[in-house]
Each structure stands twice: as structure tokens, then as C-alpha cells.
Amino acid sequence: MIKKLRLHNFKTFLNFEIDLTRRHLIIGKNNTGKSNLCQAVRFLGATSLLDYDKLASPGGLEGFRHRGFRSPVAAFECACVLPWEGNRLTFEYKLHLQVSSPSAATGAAQLPLRTSLERLDVTSANSDKLVLLDSDGETAQVLHEEPSGRKGGVRGEAVPSKAPVGCSMLSKLYELDTNQMATLFKRFLGSIAYYAFSPPLMRYGWNMPEIVPSPTGPLLPNGPNLPFVLFRLKNEDEPRYRRLMAFVSQVEPEIDSIGFWVAPDNRPIPYVILKGGTRVSWDSLSDGTLCILALAAVFIFADRTEDPLSGWVPSVTMIEEPENSLYCGLLQSLWEDFSGLAPQSQFIFTSHSPYFIDLFDRDLSSVTSLRKDQMVTAGKPLTQYRSSIQQYRGDFSLGELHYKELFA
Q1: Dist CA 55 CA 345 (whole Å)
Q2: 59-69: per-residue pLDDT in tens?
Q3: Ordered domains of the chain (ranges, CATH)
């Protein structure tokens, strides 16, 4: 999981730092930086897989850096703890990018984004800090981990090389026996997922030509391929599919299951089977039911990654305003049900809902309030408001205190 995130010179963030927990909530008024924070985490994860020019187009770089700060370098840093052979490894990763203005970003010599620093360190209970990757954007070195040295803390050989251009070292890392710890971290960053569910897209998006079924593809950020993901789960993991339908029955008790017939072009066509066998169309599902299906799918697929033979590390998932379209009286029971899924995975939420915020009433360290002053976003954990919260505890819930702007 991500324990700490640092951002500098990215959008409204200057020298920003946040500590994160396994189930973390970000709150704040509109336009304080909640979505930008999610965007930063999403961007950092994507740099482990894709070239920079696939992540930020020249037209999108105007708002990449803080508009009142003159430095051309944007910094992304994180500290993460991951399971490894029965132990835990602590990774510290730094990625600093030289950002060119769109007007100057022409030709290979002036790429929009270039690495100015990249470094990956790891520590464990059995060894001192090891530098797995190190680059100044021109030269680089990669630690070749000796297979016999991983458990005993023996250092391998640091092999020099040229730094890749227009991408991170992680994105070009081969998954070999000589770099298994770096590969673990790359897989972790690459697992970061982001969701902001759209009921209209979940209802009709699966029928758009550009939304195609995939045997391994994840749920897309707005959920247009939700039926295809459910089709895959039903075929691959019937017990978890039934568990998902149990969540849905809290909203729509008449639903028995989701059925499919396969069109000639191999596109699964979804329909709904009610108790008693009556069939109704997929587009008859309510917004709330679609959102429950999507939320349950996200938690259940995260739970699958924690299976011992999955080959993947526990994931990081960001969900913006997960309470949307849900009856507030269901939030507590759904939260309790979901808490038993994917216990090692990390979920980061944003919310304006007092009812959702109340779910964190007894875990103030898992809530961070953002505020923006003079175009700079700052964050405070609610533990710093503990005395004020205690003062009003008998009169107002945590969500009501947010509504009354105690944390603004």
C-alpha cells in the first residue's frame, strides 16, 4: 500500500505531503484538489507502464505544473509497503520530470516530459537500504539482485546504462530473476486503478462500438464495460459472482442474477433475471443498482488479486464519490460487507456526503481534509482536529461537522 505521497509543482500542489491508510477518505470543498490528487496518483502509476507522451499531450501541459511556480520540474514521490516472501519490503520511489511548455515541445530534443531524476530504494528487516534503480535522466544504473542474496541482504551488482528517453526506467524494466524486487514495485504501481462511475455509461456504454469485450480487461474508469466484466466473473469465479449478486439484492431484492447471450460478433448481451425466472432488459436497472454492481465488482476483483496463486500484489483503487445514486440508509451495511473483501488492498475515496464521511467517525487518521489558499492545496488529517471534534461529539456527527465547515 501507499503509506506516504509527496507532490511538488503539480497542478495546485506545492510541497504537498499526505499519509495514507488502507481505507482512506479525502474530503474538502469543491475545487480544493481532491480530483487532482487522484489524477496525480493515477499519473504516477501509469508512468510504470507507458511512455510520457501517452500520458500528457502537449495541449494538456499548460496546467501540469503549478501556474505560479517558475521551476520546470514536477516531483512525484511515494513510500510503499509491499508483501514479499513472508516479509514486508518498504519502497521509496522518486520521479522528477522536466516539463516543457507546449510551444517549446517540438522535436526529440524538446520532449514535453523528460526524466530529471528517478530513484527506487528498498529496505527490509533483513537488509540495509538498497538502490534498485537510479537515473539522472542521462545515465542510469540498475541493481542486479542476486537470487541467493534476497533473503540474506547480500547486494548484487549495480549495472550502468543509458537512461531511457521520454519514459521512466520502470516502464522499460524487464521482469527477470535479477530484478524481482523492482518488478514487484512496478507491478504494484501498474495496478493503480481509478473510478468515477457514470450510470448512463454503465447502462448503455457496453453497446458502443469502441467498447469491446476483453478476456482480461479491468472495469473502465466510468464503467461502460460493466456487463463484460460481470460476464467474465460469472464464467471464471461463480462463488464470487454469487457474492456480488448478494450485495445487489440489498438494493434490488427481486433480482436473481445477470444473464447473457452471446451475439455473432462474440459480444455478450446482458439481461436481468428476476426471482421466478422473468427476464427484463439491462437498461431497466436503476442508477443505484448499477453503482452497486460496479462497486461490488471493484472490491471483488481486488479480492481476487489477493489469492495466493494470482501472481499479483494487493492493488490500489481510487473511487470518487462512491455514495452517488445510493440510498444513504444502505451505506453502513454495504461498508461493513465490503470491509471483508480485499483486506490487503488499498482504497482511496473522495466524498462530499456527510453519510459516507460518518463511516470514518472512529478512524480520524484515515480522513484527510483538503483546502486551497492562494491557489495552493494543503491537507490536514482529521487527527489535528481531534479536540474540536470531541467538543461537539455529543451534538454533531463527523459528517455534520464537515457540513458546518469545521475542517475547511
Answers
A1: 25
A2: 567 789 998 89
A3: 2-194+310-328+340-403 (3.40.50), 199-298 (no CATH)
